[in-house]
TrEMBL record:
<keyword id="KW-1133">Transmembrane helix</keyword>
<dbReference type="InterPro" id="IPR008795">
    <property type="entry name" value="Prominin"/>
</dbReference>
<comment type="similarity">
    <text>Belongs to the prominin family.</text>
</comment>
<protein>
    <recommendedName>
        <fullName>Prominin</fullName>
    </recommendedName>
</protein>
<feature type="region of interest" description="Disordered">
    <location>
        <begin position="207"/>
        <end position="240"/>
    </location>
</feature>
<keyword id="KW-0325">Glycoprotein</keyword>
<keyword id="KW-0472">Membrane</keyword>
<dbReference type="Pfam" id="PF05478">
    <property type="entry name" value="Prominin"/>
</dbReference>
<dbReference type="GO" id="GO:0016020">
    <property type="term" value="C:membrane"/>
</dbReference>
<keyword id="KW-0812">Transmembrane</keyword>
<feature type="transmembrane region" description="Helical">
    <location>
        <begin position="171"/>
        <end position="190"/>
    </location>
</feature>
Length: 240
């Protein structure tokens, strides 16, 4: 793979002649024509202008692109060689290195991976330990300095809330519960009081059955009468 062939082709001229020189020659020839050949003169002038525009808009751009391709080809040649005299030697060296790396992985791959994992775990543990020590140190020496202020603040909040506000809150809470529960209880008691004051039995088949049963029991009970003695002896005995 030789990029010199491509660079040599790119370095060749895009056109076989210089278009600007040709346009200049055509313009000079047109200026030398007599007035009777005005059509030929105008045609030559038009062709000269066309060549100049073609040189400026297309050929110049193509030359710039050719220069960029040449530079890229040279850079590619330098990078692909990997500090070797040629690309072929660089590729052969790379293949040997790949084979050597493959053999190393086949023979010592598990040991190398285990060592890398162990080193990574050790390094990670060291970082975690350092971070924890830093957190503890900052907490003890920097954050811990505000502990008295925090204690004063907590004591103030506790005193204001528990000793002053809580009794008032309890009082107003009890008043609220009374308003919510006691007033409906009073209304219900007034409604039930009218029912409890009634003395008449509640009419109904159950009450009537009970009353009839009581009457039957009273009728079935025997009546005891003392015998009446109209004789005087009986009266005397009774008087004695």
């Amino acid at each position: 793979f030789n990029l010199t062939v491509y660079t040599s082709v790119l370095n060749e001229k895009i056109t076989s002649i210089d278009l600007m020189a040709l346009a200049k020659a055509i313009t000079e020839t047109a200026n030398k024509l007599p007035p009777s050949q005005i059509k030929i003169k105008n045609s030559l002038m038009f062709q000269a202008q066309y060549l100049e525009v073609h040189q400026q808009n297309q050929v110049t751009t193509m030359l710039r692109l050719v220069q960029e391709l040449t530079d890229n080809a040279n850079n590619l040649t330098e990078h692909l060689r990997f500090n070797e005299p040629s690309l072929k030697l660089a590729v052969e060296k790379m293949l040997r290195q790949v084979e050597k790396a493959q053999d190393l992985l086949n023979t010592q791959g598990p040991q190398i991976i285990s060592k890398i994992a162990s080193d990574f775990a050790s390094e990670f543990t060291v970082h975690i330990t350092d971070y924890m020590n830093r957190v503890v140190q900052q907490t003890e020496h920097n954050v811990g300095k505000c502990w008295p202020v925090s204690q004063v603040y907590n004591a103030t909040v506790t005193t204001a809330c528990n000793k002053i506000l809580d009794p008032y809150n309890g009082f107003w809470a009890s008043v609220g519960f009374i308003l919510v529960l006691f007033i409906p209880s009073i209304i219900l008691s007034v409604k039930l009081a009218a029912l409890y004051q009634k003395s008449d039995p509640y009419p109904g088949p159950l009450v009537e059955a009970v009353n009839e049963k009581r009457k039957k029991k009273q009728q079935q009970q025997p009546r005891y009468h003392e015998p009446y003695d109209s004789s005087g002896a009986g009266v005397a005995a009774a008087a004695g």
